[in-house]
Each structure stands twice: as C-alpha cells, then as structure tokens.
Fold this protein.
Amino acid sequence: MPDSALAVADKPIQFTPKTPIQYVYFFGGGTADGNGKMKDTLGGKGAGLHEMTRVGLPVPPGFTLQTEACREFMRGEISDNVTDQMLIALHRLEELQGQRFGAGDNPLLVSVRSGAKFSMPGMMDTILNLGLNDTSVESLARKTGKPRFAYDSYRRLIQMFGDVVLNIPKIKFEHIFDAAKLQIGTQQDTDLDVDALRGIIAEYRKLILHETGTQFPQDPYKQLFMARDAVFHSWENERAKAYRRINHIDDWLGTAVNVQAMVFGNLSEQSGTGVGFTRDPATGKREFYGEFLLNAQGEDVVSGSRTPVPITQLRDLMPTVYEQLRTLTQNMEEHYREMQDFEFTIQDGVLYMLQTRNGKRTGRAAVRIAMDMVAEGLISVDEAIFRVEPNQLYDFLVPRLDETQGAVEVLATGLPASPGAAVGQIAFSAEDAVRFREKGIMRSIILVRRETTPEDISGMEVAAGILTSRGGMTSHAAVVTRGMGKCCVAGAGSIQVDEEKGEMRVAGHLYHEGDWLSLDGTTGRVIAGQLPLVPAMPDDPDLVKFMTWVDSRRRLHIRANADIPRDAVQAIRFGAEGIGLCRTEHMFFDEDRLPYMQAMIMARNEHDRRAALESLLPMQREDFIGLFKAMGDLPVNIRLLDPPLHEFLPKREELMVEIARLEITDAESPELTSLRTTLERVEQLHEMNPMLGLRGCRLGIAYPEITEMQVRAIFEAAVEVKKTGAHPHLEIMVPLTCGIEEMRNQATAIRHFAKEIFAREHETVDYIVGTMIELPRAALLADQIALEAEFFSFGTNDLTQTVYGISRDDGNQFLPTYIKHGIFKQDPFAVLDQEGVGQIMKMATERGIRTRPNLKVGICGEHGGEPESVKFCHRLNMDYVSCSPFRLLTARLAAAQAALEDKLAAQGASSQEGTR
Amino acid sequence: MPDSALAVADKPIQFTPKTPIQYVYFFGGGTADGNGKMKDTLGGKGAGLHEMTRVGLPVPPGFTLQTEACREFMRGEISDNVTDQMLIALHRLEELQGQRFGAGDNPLLVSVRSGAKFSMPGMMDTILNLGLNDTSVESLARKTGKPRFAYDSYRRLIQMFGDVVLNIPKIKFEHIFDAAKLQIGTQQDTDLDVDALRGIIAEYRKLILHETGTQFPQDPYKQLFMARDAVFHSWENERAKAYRRINHIDDWLGTAVNVQAMVFGNLSEQSGTGVGFTRDPATGKREFYGEFLLNAQGEDVVSGSRTPVPITQLRDLMPTVYEQLRTLTQNMEEHYREMQDFEFTIQDGVLYMLQTRNGKRTGRAAVRIAMDMVAEGLISVDEAIFRVEPNQLYDFLVPRLDETQGAVEVLATGLPASPGAAVGQIAFSAEDAVRFREKGIMRSIILVRRETTPEDISGMEVAAGILTSRGGMTSHAAVVTRGMGKCCVAGAGSIQVDEEKGEMRVAGHLYHEGDWLSLDGTTGRVIAGQLPLVPAMPDDPDLVKFMTWVDSRRRLHIRANADIPRDAVQAIRFGAEGIGLCRTEHMFFDEDRLPYMQAMIMARNEHDRRAALESLLPMQREDFIGLFKAMGDLPVNIRLLDPPLHEFLPKREELMVEIARLEITDAESPELTSLRTTLERVEQLHEMNPMLGLRGCRLGIAYPEITEMQVRAIFEAAVEVKKTGAHPHLEIMVPLTCGIEEMRNQATAIRHFAKEIFAREHETVDYIVGTMIELPRAALLADQIALEAEFFSFGTNDLTQTVYGISRDDGNQFLPTYIKHGIFKQDPFAVLDQEGVGQIMKMATERGIRTRPNLKVGICGEHGGEPESVKFCHRLNMDYVSCSPFRLLTARLAAAQAALEDKLAAQGASSQEGTR
C-alpha cells in the first residue's frame, strides 16, 4: 500500500472519492471538519484539536485519520480511500502552510500521534519531525539558519522511527549516541556539533540497515504511511491490550491518528515553549499561572535540564504574545466552563496552542474554583458539586510535610495507608509509646511495628503516626489509623524492624528508639529526620459553604463509625447524622479493662465468666452513657462483641517461647505454672483461621452471658440518658449471622433483657434489632433473616473476604501481583467490587425488602467512605452509609453526586420521552 | 369444659351432632373409622392403630381425637362437639369391652397418648391406667384377684397424672416412693405390698393437694379430659417447640390424642409382653425373630430388671398364641410389603398387638431383605432400591469390633469420623508410626495425635486407625481417613495427648507408646485393650447383584477422588467411572519429595525455584503415568497445586521454640543459623488465615513456573501413556478462581504448554480445561468464567467455608453448640446446605450453562458421597459427583434413588394430567 501511494505522491493529486466514508478530518486555517464531541471517531486528542481550531485558537494545522481506518486495518481490509484521502489532506496542509512535504526550500514537517477515545497514557506511540531526509534536512538548516537544530531534529526522527516503526531496541540507538558523546568527552547533548550529529545519523542508518535489511526511508510519504501503520499496530501491542483489559475498554474501538504540522520553540530568542493554568491549581486563586522556557522545546522542560521561569516574565519579553495567550486561554475557560491547563509553543514570535484541557488541581483549589465559578455565573451549584472529586476533600483534613526548607532524604516508600503527615521519635512497642508519652519523654511519637494488632490500640492512640513493614491498605494499622484520621505508612517492605532489639534498618541506616522520622501518609514516603508540619484546617469557610450545597443535594444519610464518646463528638463535627457502627469490643482494649476481659476468657465455667462480666458491665455502661449523650437524638448502631477472643490474650508462640526459656533457665519458677495455664487456654482458643472461627454472634450464642452483659449495659445506659431528657435511638446489631436461627436466638435475648430493664426502670427507649450482612449465606437467605431483623448493615470488609475467599490480613502476599497483571482492577478491600460483592448485596437488599418493606439498610464496612462505593450504595437505594469520621466529607460529597447523577439521568430520560 | 362434660356423663347419652366435623375416630371390633394414610388427621400412631384394626389385628380398641381439636385448643376455641363425640366413643368402647369407665365390677381403664403426624420421640406425654380411683381400684383387685397389681397400677396413674397433667416435679413423687422402700428396708419395688402401696397413694394424694390446692380427681371423666388437655398443652412445651424448629415441623399441625383400652401382660402366667421382627434385622435372614417376658409389662423389659427370652420359647409355652402371632405379623409384612417390627401383649392367654411398623435393620440385612422380597414377588426392583438407605452400604465395607467376648471398657467417646474399627498399639507421631511399621516393631498401629496435618500422611497411611483429641467431622484426620477407608475417632476431647512426652491421659489411665487400644469409628468409642476384629467383605455376592440394579437406574455418573495409582485401582474396584479430583499436592508429601518441595518454597528467586521444580517434574510425571494407566480411557480430573505453601514447611512456633532453646544452650550452634533462615521464610509465608491466603490458582499466578512444571508433567505423562495405546481423557482443573481473569491466565498457560508438548512429541491427548467453583464470587460470576472454563467442579468444602464464613478446622469451637440448640440442623460440612450453598450452586450451574451449553458440571467436595447431597446434585442436573472410593457405593445408590424419584414424580404428574 505505501508503495502504490508513493507512485501517486509524485504526481499531481487527481482524485475523486469512490465511497462516502470520510476517513480523514482536516483542521486548520480557522476551520475544522470535526469537533470536540467526536471522540468516538477522532479520539480524545483529535476531537480536542478540532474543537480548538474551531473556536479560533492558533493550532498548528493538520488532519485526523479516524478510528474506522484502524478497525479496517485490524481486519486486514483497509480501504484504498484511506491513503487517497490522507494524500488530499496532506496536499491541503502544504497549501495552507506554504510548504512542501519533506521537500523544497521550505519543507513541511509533521508529527504523527495516536489518540484513542479513552486516554491510554504511554500505551501507544508518537513520531515527530516526519518529512526530514538527507535533502530536506539541508533545506531546514538553510531556512532556519540553524544547522545544528536541523540535524538534531533529523537524528531524533531516525531514532524514534527506528524504535517505534522498525521495532529496533531503543537501547541500541542510545549506545551509539552515548559513544559519540564519550568520543568528544562530554555528557551534554548540546555539546554535540553538526559534524558529530552527522556522524551519529550515519551510525543510526547503518544500524537500521543491519537490523532490518533496508535503508531508513528517504521518501517522506513512505515515512508517513509506515508511521501510520505503526500507530495502528501499537493499538494491538501487549501493553495496550493489557491496559484495555484492566480498564474494560473494548478492543475493537481502535485508535485515530493525528498528523500535524511541526512547530519549534527552539528556533530563536523569539521562540519558546510553556505550560500554564487559567487559575492557580494549588490554591484555586483566579490568576494566570504557569511557566515557560525561552528558545526551548517541550522536551527541555520535561528533562529538567533547564529551569523554567514564571509566565509573568513573558509579559515583559513578548507583551503581545502574552496578552494573546491570556485572552485565548481565558476564552477557552469560558468555552469549556472549566479551569484550563494548556501547552503552547512560540515559534519566531508566533503563538501556537498545542493542547488545552481541564486542569488538575488540589482539593482546596477545586472547592475554591467551583465556588468562584458559581459566583461568576459560569456554572450552576449542581455543576459545582461535580467539580470536586470526593477524595479531594481529604486535602482539608490532613497536615502536610513542609518540604520547602531543603532537600529531603526518602528512606523508603510504603503504601499510603492513611493520608496526612507525622513527624516524631521512634517507639517500637505500644507500651513504650504509652510510657514515653505519659512520662513526657517524647513529644511526638512514630510507632514503628512489623504490623499492628488490636493490643496496640493504646500505643497507636498516643502516636502521631504509624509505620509498619508488613500489611496492606486494609491491614489493621491502615484501617485503624484511617479511623483515627492519623497518618500511616504501611507495608514498607524494605524496612527491617527488630522490635525486640529496638532497631530498624533501612537504606543502610540503623535507627534506634528515640530517633526522628517524618512520614508522608499521602504518598507513602518515609523521610529521614524532623521536617516541619503544615497543619490541617478542617473548618475552612469555603469548605463549610460548599458542604451546605452538598448536603442539600444528597438523599443518602451519612453516619460515622465511632466506638467511644470522643469519636462521636468528632463525627458530629464532620457532619455525621448518626453512628452506623459502634464496635463494642474496642471498649475492652483499654489497659484497665483488658484484665477483666482476659479473666472472662480464661474462665472455665459460666460462673467465673459471669463474675468477670459483672466487672465489665459498669465500665461498658459508662461508655454507652457518654456515647448516647454525645449523639443526642441521632441514631446509634451498636454491634455486639465480634472479634475472636484470642485477640485479647497473649500470643501463643510468645508464650511457647517464654515457657521453653524458663524450662531451661528457671524450671522451678512459679511463673512457669501460670504461663502453662495461660497457654493451655490459648491453645484451646487457638484457631487455624480465626476470621472464620468463634467470633461474631457465635460468641453470644456459645456464651449467652456475654450478650446478656452487653445488652444490659446498653439499655441501662440508654434509660439513664433518657431520664436526662434526651431521646436515644438505638439499633442493636448482631454480627456475623449466616441464617435466621442465629438472628432469632440473639434477637430474642436482646428483646428479653430490654423488656426486663424497661419494666424495672419504668422507662422505655426506642430501639430496633438487626444484623450485619457480612457472609454470603446471610445475603442469600436475607428474605428469611428479615423476618427477625429490622435492619441490615452490610459489613463489606468481611463480605469481601468471604465472597473472594481472601483474608485482608494476608492478601498482600498476592494482591500486588494480581493488580500488576490486571487480574484485579483494584484492591477489592479499598473499592467495593460491584460485580461480585455488589451483586450479592443487591440480592440481599431486594430480598430483605420483599420480606419487610420498611427494612432499614446501610453499610458500615471500610467501603462506606469510598466514593464509587458510596454511589453504588445510593443506587441500591440504601438508607445510609457509615464510615470513619475522617471520611465523612468524602462520603457526603459522593452521595450528593450520586443523587445529582440520578437527577441528570431522569432529565435525560424525560427529554428523550419529549422527543418521541 | 370438663365440668359440663361431667354433668352429661351421669346421664344416658343422647346426642345429635350439630356440625359435620368428625373429631373422634373409633377403632375396634374389627372395624375402624380411619386408616393408615390419615396421618394428617390421626397422627402417625393413630393412623397405625386404625390400619391394624382394619386388617384384623387384635388391637385393644379405642378412639383417636383428631388434630383439628388440638388446633382449636391452641386457638382457644375448642368446640363443644369434641367432648360430646369423645363421650359417645367412650360409651361405644364400654359396650365393646363389656366394661364401665372407671366404675362397676369390671372397670374400663384406658391409656391416653399423644401422636403427631411426624414422630417426635419423647417430646410429648403419655398417661396409663386412666379410670382408676378409690372405688375402681377395689373392683380391679377383686376382678383380677391381684390387689397388689391393682394398687400398683393406681399408684402409677397418680404419679403420672401428677407429673404430666398437674406439673408437679416427678422427683417429689420419687422421694415419697423411695422413703417407703427405705422404711421396709428394700430396694426392690416388688417388695412393696398392698399396705405399703396404699400408704404411698395416700402420701401422693397429700402431695397433690399441697401442690395444687385440689384433690386428685376421683371422677374418671375429669381424669380423661384433664389428660387430653395436658396432651394438647404438651404440643406447645419448649422441648416440643424446639424439636419442631430443628426438624422444620409446622407448629400449627397439632397432635392427635389416642385413647385406648388398657391391656396387662402382668396379670398371670398366661400373660406376657414382647417385641419381634418378621426377619432377622441383623442379617436379613427370613426367620421369625424376637424376645419376650412372661407375666410382665413393657416397663420391665425396658428397665432391664429381667432378661427376656427368645421368642421361640413362646412356641412351647403357648403354641396357639405363638402361631397366631406368626401368622398375624406375616400378614402385616405382606400388607405393608415391608419387614415388620412389632410389640405385643398377652393378657390371660389373649394376644393383643400394640404396635407394628417397618423395622430398622443393618445395611447387610437391608440388602438381603430387599433382594429376597423381589425374589418372593413382594416388591419390584425399583422398590428394592429404596429399601436400602445409601449410608447403610458402609456396613459392607468396614471391619467391626467383636464385642461378644466379654465386657468392654469405653475410655472416651469422640466423633465417629470414619467408620470401621481398628485395634493396635499407640504411636504419637507420624514418623514413629512409619518407623515402627518399617522395623516391624508394631504389627498394627493406632496413631494418636492432638490433630493431624498433611505432614502426617505417611504416618496415617501405615496406621490401622487414627485417634485425635481435637477436630470435627471434617477435620483433616476425618477427611483423609474417610478417603482411605480407615477408621478414625476424632475430637475425643476428654483425652489429653502429650505428643512430646509420648503420653495420653484418659479416664484416669495413663497410656504410653506401644499400649494397646481399640477404636470404633462407627460409634466414636475409644476402648481399652485389644479386641478381636471381624473383617469386611466388600465383594458380598448379594451386594454385587444389588449394585447392578442400582447402576442400571441412575443417570448421574459417579467418580472417585484419588491422588495416587493405588487409590485409582481401588476406585475402579468400587465402581468409579473416572477420577473427579486428583489432588496433585498429595504427591509432594512423600518423604523423598518433601525436600524438593521445601527447596522450591524456600527459593528466593525464580531461578532457584525452577531448579527445585525440575527435580519434582520427573517424579510427578511418573505418578501421572501410573494414574493414567490405571484409569485407561476413563476421564481423569487433575487439580493444579492448591494448598498454602507453609503446609510443606516446619511449623513456625516449633521453630521459634527451638531457636529460643538453642540461644540459651548452644548459641554458637551452626544449626541456629539455618533455623533462623528457615524461620525467616516461614515468617514471610505465615498467614493469619491461610484458608483465605496464598493458595489455589493464586500460587500458579504468583509463581507461573509451578503451573508450568505441573502442566508439563501431566501432558508428558499423558502422551507417553497414549503411545502405549490407551486414550487418556484429561480434565485440567484450576483451583480457587474468583473471576474470569484468573481462569484466563491459567487456561492460557495450560493450553500453551500442552500445544508445545504435543508439537514436540507428535502426539495429542484429549483434554479440557476448567475450574473448581469453590468461592461465592466464582459462583456469582459463573457466566463470565464459563467463557474460559470448559467444566465446573464444585468444591463444596471451601464453598461451604466461605458461604458460611466458617473454617472447617475451627468450627468445632461452636458447631456442637449450634447443633444442640437447633441453630444448625446438621453439620454443613457433612451434609450439603441446600438452602444457602445449594442456592448459589444452582445459580452458578444455570449461569455457566447459559454461557456454554455443553459445560460439564460435577462436584468433588466431601459432600459428593453424602446421599442427600448426591440427590441434590442429580436434581441440579450435574454430570457427575466425585467422592472418596470408600463412599462410592453410597453415592451410586443415592444417585439411583434420585433418578427413581424423578421417575415417580413424572408418573405422578402424568397421572394427574390424566385425571384433568
């Protein structure tokens, strides 16, 4: 095909289309065949170029070969018309530019770029400077008066062409290039003169001949068509296929190809290149913002070899161009009704716009821009709500490391488990952390552990940040710290923690207790030394106003997971409309309670167990009184004891080691007997898979006295608070049911003790009884369970574990591999798996409501604060989502967006109805 | 109500029914109002009595108050007609018997018994001797000439009435009774004379007056109606309600009440009582079989105070009665077309039949009887197939303890984990067991462990039986031994095993290595010493013929789970039509392979891992060659490596203890370094919940070289066997997928290596690639997975674990409580949970077949050999079930019954169609 095209190219163009298919869309000279909406046909980049041209931006002209050509190419039946139409368009481009393609005194050079409907960053290929050959490179040198520029452009073309089109490993070109630099004893590309570049070009051409058996094509048309086919091929390379599979992009969409006249920012001191934003992307302030480099190309900015200067300097250097740029980008902002991020090139004093698109920004900027644009009348409040991504609101909540004070040394990078920053001194155990804090030995503590367990809670509470060498995004450390709104870097595998010795080795350093560390939980970086912190401002006035808009739009109620009064107070501050999950076991990890809890567990009969529970009852009652007082009339959902009991006991292997040691060193020690007794009970409770063992309602059924104590504490507290004039609304939640019998057993007990206390106290409290839906069987039999349960709350952590058969504590062994290979699109513990877990949730909701139409349905797993998951819950028509206080802002915004998406869909549907 | 009835009772009966409802059904004098089919109305017992009367058996006459009366009673709206109809029936009974109810010279006495549609053994109450009072007791004494008999009957009435009707604790009556015996210095009830009994009666009456404030009712009608109401009440007692909940019996069914004339087997030397069978229930031999006691009541048989004699002796004592009994029961067998189990009483030379029903029998007897009855023309072959319960076929397979040689001492009772019996000497570790066997130190070994792990396999193989102190019916020990057809008692909690010391404590005894034990895996008993064994006879000619009938009826194919050639050979002997699951990892636990497996796991990079795998490849290939040769052209399903890798490594806590010891005793030991290295890797692989961790296809995806090695071994073996002229049919199974991406990843690898080997060897083998469906997500997304999978095999062990969120290794902590409280009807690891797990299996099957209509579907979990589960699989229209060789007979029979049930349902439907 390219060969026949060449035959044509030498003749004047005389062509009549045989078919009505338009393969080629031209843009330039103030008009464009396409527009911004034609992403299916022209791809994202192509549609953007056409739209920019259409609205009058000075875009280097060119044309787009549409995606149908790619589809034909994949089927092996590309039409002759494709080539014909390209030649026509190329001719038109020559006319418009007053240049000839790769020939004459003023040669036309073009770029060839892929551009699919959906952005596939880095997945496909680009070739620049097409049209250069042994002849036109001389013309270009003469025309520009810059032989070095011309030959370097030619060198780059051959290298890119060799790599992308001819599939010669890039490294072979680089070897030649490096050898040339070595020969003249430099490391700077710019030190290579014309002769050196000519030498490199000669070597490159030898390489191509040797690798492919043919010469680098001198014919510019041959270059163009080979480049086009290479772009089509790149749609089907393995990287691109994997990317599409992961992102669920249809393989048959194909890519468009954009052919565009080259412009150069490195031609003169009246040339340059830059990037900018119509508003400050960090603060959102409405001011022209950007930076540029004089006499430079985009590559120079990217490589960091020269430091760009603020765009305001352009005003002094080229005032006309600067004003033109300001006006143009301002117009684009009004056109797109969005803050723009743009790229431009100035070639000999002439401004070209290479790209303009909606600009990325920080959360703070997003809120500020959205609100300003509403004030400016540019967008509506509904639109403003979509201008902020829910997760961006974390920006308002976290302290940040101030890295402006000098270079920082990154020791290791782990998972960004809980955002924010922390700076403090290392402690290697929870007890140490508590002691250091209490005795004032350390002002700020970084708790460093291989991994954390519930026993570490008190240490985690006094720490400023947590660093673990093991565990994933939903490890104990990650989940608990996110709940606390506390910075955490988890699973930093290159750190070797020796808790016993009180040492940590990382990047060749040895750290001890008390050494300073800085953590960036937003990026996962572990940084040496003591960096300054920039504090959080959760009561930003912009945010407060923005959230009133948000709340007025959403239907879904948003609650918080909170276990203690202090959390409840914080939850209300962040806008919680109730507590969706109070994990009563968290009340037992306190130092003064753990002994009673352990006594309860160690008890060998009901009598001893009851005695221990009696001691716990008043403490738990006090906790509930605090909680109910804090929440006033808002609903409070309390989950009965859930975790495996051995979480409260010493670790089995530690006991075994201690016993083995004592047997050798002090066999008569009375401690040995006590340790052996403890070990015996720990052995009895030991489970192979505690996640699937004696926990949840299984505890309350096996030991009814536990349920009794908890229910008494709850209702005695509620009655007491009610007597002060408040009206607690309780939801008592039975965990881990897998069928109606468990639900009935526990609900009967709960109602029995409630009735007893109400009768004794001559006072009643509003309450309902329901269950977590966190096992597949509960979801499958939801219609039966709803006979007894007045509400469902999806525990999506456990539900994800059981639906997938993956322990969130252990998934780290293979989840990274899975995500790398695209087997999982994302971590199902971070983002709800709508296809599988969501499917069964939908089933459960529908079945539950069929049995009990007024069934209350919510979610209290970690997903309750993840935007896509919140939206899914909205679409399931749930009553509420519950998340950690720290995630409330995000959840509220996601819920509002979900409601507005409904509204838009309804409007879309009704406007379609109207047109029928 | 009873009071108004009493008023009527004194007058002659003059009554016309106001409504058409028949509450009372009379039986006696050769006719009966009801029949054997009216269980809804008359309850099971009532229907039986009516049927027996109808066919001419000498049943003591009486009447049945139907269940509608009970329902009215529960609603508090019992009709007056109930009492009226009872009085009419009672009058008719008086006429028939020539007696008057509780009055006159010849008083009529009756029993009152409950009897619901479904048998609820021991759940409801019975009262005997109703009609006795201070007057009639004298008449009875006179009439029989046996005052002691009369007063003892009266005493019993008052005691039963006080307990059942008046709710006075039974213990209070027993105190009085015991005091009376103490007074005359005896322990024998029979030593109490008339005066003593009168004294007791007086005390009883005082007790009743004291407890209830009223006298024991002298009016027989009052006794009757109060007893009736007590029976109705007993339907609603807690025991009965719980029983119904567990057995899914509707609370509103209600119970019937049977009122029947009393007969006494203890009136004379011409009286007696006995039980019998029409055929030998142990062997099935067609001979009259039973035992009886002269001059005795049923209670005397039950209490064991006298030893009954063989029924043949009755022939000599009362030849007429004996012949009558033989003929009657023979007639009943012909009438019911089933072997009968009957109870009879002889009162003064007159035979009465109290009950006859289908008799329970051993498995051997069931097969013999079914086949004999076909030969006798009594039943069809189809019927014969239903006469044997599938699980009864285990009788043919297991050795038994011979307990006829004297008293046995039961040391403990655990779970009957794997049936059969074993007698041997104790070994406390697998290595010891292997050594003792190899060196001939022990002839027969009982391996005693706290619990077993896959490392114990070789020890389990050489042991005759396994005893564990922990673990449930599906613990490792239980599952593996059932697979081996080897006796196992699991979870015998009262045994304390100290494996380190080589000791076991039980029931006050201390056992050491080498001591003798006998295990009964069928009952779970652990017996002291060395009992003789009765060997198994799996090739019984009756069984062989019966199984040909069975196989000709079933649709479902039956395969075996078999991992090594020896198992495959056994499977074929038991009728397997293929291998449904070959667990390739079992090939790695062999002593000579474990080091390579461990090297593979310990490898820190792909290179070292590949080297270890290269050593394993030829071994695994040899195993497959043996397997394929054994199976010939039958399908063989091979599962790729599944278990967590740390199963192959030393235990973490043992390493930690060993290191701690060496650190103190020999800190310079080179062993210490090696142990620390091992521990480091073990720590890396350590998982909180290994069941939900790095296992299944996750291994093959994380370490593709494992899949590669296994696939090479499989196909190289298959090609080699094919070259010998056989035609292996392979199914390569990917374990633990949760979505299509995993399936695609592994299927691509499998097909790739197969193709490579076929090309290299110039030979191909038939194979398909599929997956285990053992995670809820796989079931939910079965439609997608079937795009890549050519077959599904349900792994119901794991599926049950994840659907329920219960680890089968740990469920023992609460499953017994759950089953006791009726929260679970049965252990879901033993019997497939059709409601939950079955629901999702149905979903997966339907979705899979929608995608791929010729999808092959089977099951390979432990449930594949459980009859109800097999029938469920038949109804899901699966292609096959696969179970351990030992369960094949059972599965085959269950499959045949399922197919016949289909046939019957179709006949039922078509005959219904015909009547429309």
User: Anything to note?
Assistant: Residues 1-15 of chain B have pLDDT under 50 and may be disordered. The radius of gyration of chain B is 34 Å. Residues 888-915 of chain B form the longest helix (28 residues).
